[in-house]
Amino acid sequence: MLRGRFSETATDEGNRLTRELLVSAGELPFFGPNCYGFINFFDGAALWPDQVVGKRRERGVALICQSGTLALNLLYNDRSLPIGCALTVGNQTRLAAEDLLELMCPMSG
């Protein structure tokens, strides 16, 4: 099975590609690699390589998933839980789940 070929392969080549990605990105925050990206149902914005399942919302929870497939399965499950954002982190090379928790749930003063 062919995967993303980054550091998850635990090979010299995968580690080299991950280092190159970090250098190329500079200070730019990014999801992944090896993830679906995000959907923001509040603002109607998505960087998502598959069909977007859901609708614009005024309120809702944020799903933070490692796997795009898991996020898709949860989005297809049309229940009473309103989903406002779906974010996937993949390899968590620059942004990790805990970074997204801080972003989505800022602590007040």
Number of discrete domains: 1
Alpha carbon gap, first and last residue: 48 Å
Which regions contain 5 or more consecutive residues with pLDDT less than 50? Answer: none
SSE order, as H and E? HEEEHEH
The computed structural class is: alpha+beta
Describe the fold and architecture:
There is one protein chain. The chain has 109 residues and is α+β, with helices and mostly antiparallel strands. The chain has a single domain (27-104), classed as Rossmann fold. The protein has helices at 12-25, 68-76, 97-104, and strands at 38-40, 45-47, 61-65, 83-88. It has a four-stranded mixed sheet with strand order 2-1-4-3, with helices on both faces. The chain is elongated, with a radius of gyration of 15 Å. It starts with 11 loop residues before the first helix and ends in a 5-residue tail after the last helix. The model has no long low-confidence stretch (mean pLDDT 89).
